[in-house]
Amino acid sequence: MPFYDLQSFLGCLEREGLLRRVKVEVDPELEISEIATRVVREEGPALLFERVRGSSYPLAINILGSGRRIEMVLGMHPQQLGERLANFVERLNPPSPRELWRSRGFLSRVWATRPRKVKNALCREVVEDAPDLNSLPIIKCWPQDGGPFITFPLVITQDPETGHSNVGIYRMQLYDGTRTGMHMQIQKGGGFHYYKAEKQGQPLELAAVLGADPALMLSGILPLPEGFEEVAFSGLLRGGRTPMTKAKTLSLEVPACAEFVLEGVVPPHERLPEGPFGDHFGHYSDVADFPVFHVKAITRRRNPIYPAAVVGKPPQEDRYMGDAAQEIMKPLIRLMRPEVRDTWAYFETGFHNLLVVAVEGRYTKEPIKTALGLLGEGQLGLTKCIILVEPSVDVRRFPQVLRAIRRNFTPQDDFVLISRAPLDTLDFTSFKMHLGSKMIIDATGDGSAPEAQLPLQVDPQGICPQVLKWRLWEDTLLAVQVKEEGREALSTLLASERLAGIKIIAAVSPDVDLEDDVSLLWGIFTRFDPARDILFSRMSLRGALPVYEGTMGIDATFKKGYPAPLEMSEEIRERVSRRWDEYWQ
């Protein structure tokens, strides 16, 4: 059965043994974050904290933190839903009565994209005309965060020109009882709406929904095409029409069954410092100026539940939501680009930092054309690294990707550097917000790559004394843990003939666990800017053409000026460890 509100979903989770209640009082400052992080890493249940210090409202977290919970929301595996959606679109090209009949099972989901208007809405059972955000159990996730943040809002805005709505998830730093930051990143629908409103000199109406049904929560993170409404798509995900109602003080429509709705405006040309914040790249975002949300009213249910999420070093809850999003959307990529057989963005790298694409190359360098095209598609345009592989390679298995690189990658023919391009707002590696570089590795192969001969003995410590530990992964990637910044050590290793058969050498910092695949992928791909930090054994210019030869080197060490990686305070870790059994009584 479809879920139309958060509480019915949580009730179902509890009946299935997928939710645990925490009845003792907990602190919203760091303690909840540490508990949730441990539970996620144990692949544990959703949590409902009944007593949060300083608030009368319970808090739910890790709501969508497992594949099974995602399937309960959708009624099927997200990959199956994506394939059914793609098949439906294909059968309508061109449409015919026969194809429509064959698609009749999916038509009910398509019909459900039409929202259902509701007058007597649960979200307006209580109206607070004198709002006070301090009454909410807003959490502080990491020790150096700039304050408490609303971490799972569904931010609803409307295009000032077209009237189309957008639902996005943008963190909101609490400034006082009526104001928050509004972290609208680039390439996000709400940010585009604010851009248009600000050009007109008009405030942007905004409703921040705290606690909607899980299909709408999931829809809010999907990289839908600009102008495609998430409210409509949530009906397709749910298999039932989304109940919507007019906001109390705004011209917007909001989910009728929401727990809380914060209604207000974002004025033009007003900015306040926002951050730091521990984000899903596993580091703090630096302080930067962002728009300000002024809350004019709060409407809510009589007994609402506040939703929260924690992001940080992987794995976190967003892994499951991000994986589901790409399972649903990637069949549509194949419709637009028939040469694409499969895609996978790695949660270990924060999704945007690494995308692997399996391509059927039908003519010379078509895979490169495909990669350049994907870098122009919506939120895929924020991807930093694309690795292209043949269709026989399982894009989700990085060891197979590495073996493809070993077989097929020749730097002078298969490496593309884009030196100046837009980057994810959270990427810090170029030291300039929104601006950095990208790279493409073409490992599809045409049979011309020379067979690389591994050295008889791989001993990077014998070559460079700065190397603390090392790991050779699939005879392709030599990861070396080095002291301090790694440029000098990397240059020494690249110059050694004793390592000439290695395809890639990556230098990482001591906080990266070389034997843990998640930690290693995180430690490499979140800490380098291609234009600044990629080296080759031999590099030269032929006119304006850069020529790369030999072994590729990646300086992925932590550099001066990078924001600090996320670590919980020792006091909080000790407190949670001491109380661990108490939480579950």
- Calculate the terminal CA-CA distance, rounded to whole Å: 31 Å
- Helix proportion: 25-40%
Low-confidence stretches: none
Query: Beta-strand level of the residues, as a percent range?
Result: 25-35%
Counted by DSSP, the helix tally is 18
Could you say which overall geometry the principal axes of the C-alpha atoms support? globular
Number-wise, the strands total: 29
- Rg, please? 25 Å
Mean pLDDT: 93
Biggest β-sheet, characterized? 8 strands, antiparallel
Helix-strand makeup class: alpha+beta
What does this structure look like?
The chain has 585 residues and is of the alpha+beta class. The protein has 18 helices and 29 strands. Strands 5, 7, 8, 10, 11, 14, 15 and 18 form an eight-stranded antiparallel beta sheet that branches. Helix 2 (31-41) links the parallel strand 1 (19-26) and strand 2. The radius of gyration is 25 Å and the shape is globular. The two termini are 31 Å apart. The relative contact order is 0.11. The mean pLDDT is 93.
Strands, helices and their partners?
Elements: H1 6-15, E1 19-26, H2 31-41, E2 46-52, E3 59-61, H3 67-74, H4 78-91, H5 97-102, H6 104-111, E4 116-117, E5 126-128, E6 149-150, E7 154-158, E8 165-168, E9 172-173, E10 179-181, H7 189-199, E11 204-210, H8 214-219, H9 230-238, E12 243-246, E13 253-255, E14 260-266, E15 271-274, E16 277-278, E17 284-285, E18 288-300, E19 306-307, H10 318-336, E20 340-345, E21 355-359, H11 366-374, E22 385-389, H12 398-408, H13 411-414, E23 415-422, E24 435-443, H14 460-463, E25 467-473, E26 477-482, H15 487-495, E27 504-508, H16 517-525, H17 530-533, E28 534-542, E29 545-555, H18 570-583
